[in-house]
Amino acid sequence: MLRFAVDPGSTDLSPVSFHPVLWICAAAVFAVIVLQSIVYLRAIRKAASAADLTDAQVLGSVRRGGIAAIGPSLAVALVAISLLPLFGTPAVLTRIGLVGSAAFDVAAAGLAAQSQGAELGGPSYTQKVFAIGFAAMTLGGLVWMLTALILTPLLSKGDKTLRKVNPAVMTVVPTAAILAAFFTLALSETVKSGVHVLTIIVSAAVMGLCILAAKYLKRPWLREWGLGISIFVALAAAFLVTA
Predict the structure, then answer these.
(1) Which of 105, 85, 110, 109 is nearest to 94 (CA)?
(2) How many angstroms separate the CA atoms of 200 and 84, rounded?
(3) Position 240 pLDDT exceeds 80
(4) CA dihedral in degrees (198, 204, 205, 209; nearest 10)?
(5) What is d(CA 99, CA 105) in angstroms, rounded to the nearest whole number?
(6) Which residue spans within the chain are E strands per DSSP?
(7) CA atoms within 13 A on the CB side of 124
(8) CB < 8 Å & 24+ apart, contacts of 235-240
(9) Residue 89 neighbours by CB distance under 10 Å
């Protein structure tokens, strides 16, 4: 349907980027997310009694998880806003709702545009280039999801095998993997500019202060809101430096 709606030489992206098909796809994505959330919440309530958790403890855990997600969600929202001029609202909602990797989406769309001798957001950014770029982003995201679908059962078997050999291994490995992933992401930003280094230092310092304050001042909410606070303070510091 999108194929017949595309005028290859037109630089007016609105007829394609706001096409009803894309709105339907975006709505379907978020409908699936809502359905998954409901399924997970029901599963939590069913498993709570087996784990000796009270309703108050379950509610508290869900609330803390929701609060902790605000910080990363704000970062994703900022990314989404920056992508709106390039891809339009439905495409951004669909991509961010599924994967949320702005770096990958922009890189994939940029390479697709270069293959057509065009540039994202430039005068040669036509409806055809938009369609090709969006297809590249979608196919790349599809491979990620299929990879997770195929590899997760295999990794689960490996997890069970390692736990039988040494249960402590699977306690250390996930934590080390998460720390390594975040350290790599942070380290890759330090080579870009001094502002990036300052942002990382400020955010780490604020997060550390929030954790210490939560511990010594007996304010658990500071730990829950720490990520969001550190993001806001780091962004403010970066803005003041570059202003």
Answers:
(1) 105
(2) 26
(3) yes
(4) 160
(5) 9
(6) none
(7) 9
(8) 235/199, 237/198, 237/199, 237/202, 238/195, 238/198, 238/199, 238/202
(9) 15
Give which of 45, 133, 42 is closest to 91, Cα–Cα: 133
Question: Could you report the per-residue pLDDT of 4-48, keeping only the tens digit for each?
Answer: 456 666 777 777 888 888 888 888 888 888 898 888 888 888 888
Quote the DSSP letter at residue 243: -
The reply to whether the predicted model has a pTM over 0.70 is no
Closest C-alpha to 127, from 18, 24, 23? 18
User: Exposed e or buried b for every residue in 184-214, given b needs 16+ CB within 10 A?
Assistant: eeeeeeeeeeeeeebbbebbeebbeebeeeb
Q: Which two tokens stand for residue 199?
A: 């942002």
Reference 81, options 98, 102, 99; nearest CA is 102
The three-point CA angle 101-107-112 to 5° equals 125
The Cα–Cα gap between 214 and 222 comes to 5
Residue in the block written with tokens 């890759």: 188
What letter represents residue 72's amino acid?
P
Measure CA 175 to chain center: 19
Model confidence at 158: pLDDT above 50: yes
